[in-house]
């Protein structure tokens, strides 16, 4: 099982700015089991975190020449555009980490529902009882 602080991938990717000109800005990305952190290239700037609980999906993957373009869609339907070098496979790494996060969360939800549904004093389903 992955630990929350474990770094799954680290490297360079570019984020399209929200400004009028929509310029591509280089970022150092750090992918962990719970989030994608984006560090600006300039000194003193604070990193931004895209936590997986606020991400719906990785979408619109397109490969052109030397770049792979992809979009991260958040739970509030905001679309954040990225591009990376074709061989870096950031889109695949983020997608796999997101799926792993969603699976872990679904298991935790399932277990907590089972615990709430089990009557007090009754053994949990799947435990052996003496005859």
From TrEMBL:
Bilayer topology term: Peripheral membrane protein
GO biological-process terms attached to the record: animal organ morphogenesis; placenta development; positive regulation of apoptotic process; regulation of cell migration; regulation of embryonic development; regulation of gene expression; regulation of glycogen metabolic process
GO cellular component: cytoplasm; membrane
InterPro entries for the chain: PH-like_dom_sf (IPR011993), PH_domain (IPR001849), PHLA1/2/3 (IPR042832)
Gene Ontology MF annotations: phosphatidylinositol phosphate binding
CDD domains: PH
Compartments, as annotated in UniProt: Cytoplasm; Membrane
SUPFAM superfamilies membership: PH domain-like
Region entry Disordered, spans: 112-131
Coarse class of the protein's main subcellular location: cytoplasm
Keywords: Cytoplasm, Membrane
Domain annotation PH: ranges: 7-101
Protein family: Belongs to the PHLDA2 family.
Function of the protein: Plays a role in regulating placenta growth. May act via its PH domain that competes with other PH domain-containing proteins, thereby preventing their binding to membrane lipids.
Protein name, entry field: Pleckstrin homology-like domain family A member 2
Gene label: PHLDA2
